[in-house]
Specification:
This protein is of the alpha+beta class. Helix content is 23%, strand content 27%. The strands form 7 sheets. Strands 3-4-2-5-6-7 form a 6-stranded mixed beta sheet. Strands 8-9-12-19-14-17 form a 6-stranded antiparallel beta sheet, with no helix packed on it. Strands 21-22-23-30-25-28 form a 6-stranded antiparallel beta sheet, with no helix packed on it.
């Protein structure tokens, strides 16, 4: 028998994650407060288990060897040691083999991904297009063999690459938890032998580790025998792979919410903190609510109050056509639309910024589409503004010189001499196609609706402030000027970048309003406004919706009804076909919906 970690392990959860955010509970609260739910769950009929003891019994019952594969961020030492102890207590002799023994030398891996990491840039790299197997030595993999008369367990990221006939357990970790763990300096990137600065580690996660591990997860999904949610570290949740796939099929026909997560920021405000129950109130602010950033959100399954979270992309890996409908042909396993909140209420202004053109994004970052955005004003205070487009008399060379001097000499910039501002108005939509200079002013609650790529923001000016850790925030002036559209200036901005709104359908007590997006936006935005009930049809597209006025609605898909509260985002998959939204509020309800334009599929 091999004891994989004989010297003990650190199981102090507080030291294994660096965050003020609470970890998801094992069970749903019995008496949840009414209003926005931070742990939205989709009810299923199959059993969710909550213990290492039950998992060890399942392993023994298989009478064969086991593969334990998983995503980046798994605390393998903690997981393996706990499982080992339960197996030994049951009299099982175990031969543990770490798949890391078959990794290529770390220097070889560094050379493999050198161009993708672009070491001269602290933020941006280029997506690695290869496979997980590229990180492993083929000969070393071939040497991994079971030991006769013993239970052999091969474990680690990529364990299923070993030539071992075995049942497969897969461990998932939400992306937010991976980042919390990274900030605690206990994680290693794929193939790395040392930890590094969390921001650089995230960069490698984003451009290298996650792309190859996503491909690997997609290839494994149909063959997984057990799925494990490891985010509570010492208190796992698990269920059968068959039950997982059944749940994913059910979700692809009904309304559901992704699990949001929340982050403070240097410009963050107080609206989220004051209006969303269950969050840690000791945090200085909440800048973001990541409502639906599919590459980083999870989905929570619930059975008899027990919770288990898996990554959102498993829905797409399982059946992207069912989720995306017509848009699946273009976007494949990449969910196209993003919803998140930017909270500057009693906070500060965002940086002055722009996003890259499509061709630039593809060439420099390896992304197939870019970060075309909109700002929907959900709430604001008097005098709140949005920065959008240039003044008519903009001088490109002068503007760049002023920004560079500000960066080099720490000189304030009179931004409004160069960039226009517009008064915030509730339910107004500001259009921000790529190349448009923009920012949210203070005292706004913005529902940001965007194409999914989510880190490609080129900051030009950040009001001379450090980040929350007192360190300078990097600027990207040269990248911004390679993409800025200086024709978006003067009256052109008012005429083309503030959405015109028109009624396109109506009934006795309801209407549908079209908020006309820019030609560069591949998505359309409509708003349901209704007193009692309104019906929606997917027409072969996935709909992403958010309640922007009204306390409570019911969403009915088939025989299933679900409650959705103010500011909650939810998804109607293409295969749901039609849905009803029932108003349970005191006054008129308004629900915003976005979907891919048919002509952009």
């Amino acid at each position: 028998m091999t004891d994989p970690y004989p010297d003990g392990i650190n199981t102090d959860i507080g030291s294994l994650r660096n965050t003020t955010q609470f970890v998801i509970p094992e069970k749903k609260a019995q008496t949840a407060e009414p209003g926005y739910a931070i742990y939205p769950a989709f009810k299923i009929e199959d059993t969710i288990h909550h213990d290492f003891n039950g998992l060890s019994e399942w392993i023994i019952d298989q009478h064969q060897n086991i593969i334990i594969d998983g995503y980046s961020g798994v605390y393998w030492d903690v997981f393996v040691r706990q499982l080992h102890e339960h197996l030994v207590q049951k009299g099982k002799t175990v031969n543990w083999i770490s798949i890391d023994t078959a990794l290529k030398n770390s220097l070889v891996i560094d050379q493999l991904i050198e161009k993708n990491l672009q070491q001269d840039d602290p933020v941006f790299g280029k997506r690695y297009e290869g496979e997980l197997k590229d990180f492993f030595d083929t000969e070393k993999l071939s040497l991994i063999q079971p030991v006769s008369q013993e239970l052999t367990i091969v474990y680690g990221c990529g364990a299923a690459l070993a030539p071992v006939d075995a049942k497969i357990i897969y461990i998932d970790v939400p992306k937010n938890e991976i980042q919390f763990r990274s900030r605690a300096n206990h994680l290693y990137n794929l193939g790395a032998i040392t930890t590094t600065d969390p921001k650089l580690q995230y960069k490698r996660f984003y451009f290298v580790d996650w792309p190859v591990l996503n491909k690997h997860k997609q290839q494994l999904l149909a063959h997984i025998d057990v799925i494990v949610d490891e985010q509570r570290i010492t208190e796992i949740s698990w269920m059968s792979g068959t039950a997982l796939r059944t749940a994913l099929t059910k979700m692809s026909r009904h309304a559901f919410r992704a699990r949001p997560w929340f982050e403070p920021g240097v410009w963050g405000g107080q609206w989220i903190k004051e209006n969303i129950a269950g969050l840690n109130q000791a945090v200085v602010n909440y800048a973001w609510s990541f409502e639906l950033i599919a590459p980083e959100n999870g989905i929570i399954l619930e059975n008899e109050g027990r919770l288990l979270e898996v990554s959102f992309d498993m829905l797409l890996f399982h059946n992207s056509n069912a989720i995306l409908g017509k848009a699946a042909k273009r976007f494949g396993y990449h969910f196209p639309i993003r919803f998140d909140f930017l909270d500057t209420m009693d906070g500060d202004k965002l940086s002055l910024q722009c996003h890259p053109a499509v061709a630039y994004t593809k060439e420099h970052f390896g992304e197939d589409f870019t970060q075309d955005e909109t700002y929907y004003i959900l709430d604001h205070k008097e005098q709140a503004k949005v920065y959008l487009g240039f003044q008519e008399n903009i001088n490109q060379e002068e503007f760049k010189h002023v920004l560079q001097e500000s960066f080099n000499q720490h000189i304030p910039v009179a931004v409004e001499d160069y960039v226009q501002t517009f008064d915030s108005k509730k339910h107004e939509l500001f259009l921000i196609p790529n190349g448009t200079v923009h920012s949210s002013g203070k005292d706004n609650l913005v529902l940001e609706i965007s194409a999914t790529p989510y880190i490609f923001t080129f900051k030009m000016y950040d009001w001379l402030r450090p980040d929350l850790n007192g360190k300078p925030r990097p600027l990207n002036i040269d990248r911004a000027f390679a993409n800025l559209n200086f024709e978006r200036k003067g009256d052109v901005v008012k005429d083309t970048l503030i959405a015109k709104q028109s009624i396109i359908q109506q009934g006795n007590d309801w209407q549908v309003v079209n908020l006309i997006t820019h030609p560069d936006h591949f998505y359309a935005i409509h708003r349901f406004e209704f007193d009692t009930i309104v019906e929606g049809h997917t027409k072969g597209q996935c709909h992403i919706l958010s309640v922007v006025e009204g306390e409570l609605i019911l969403v009915r898909t088939g025989e299933m009804e679900q409650e959705i509260h103010y500011a909650e985002t939810f998804i109607i998959p293409a295969d749901a076909v039609q849905y009803q939204i029932i108003n349970k509020s005191k006054g008129r309800a308004k629900v915003l919906t976005a979907f891919v334009k048919d002509e952009c599929c």
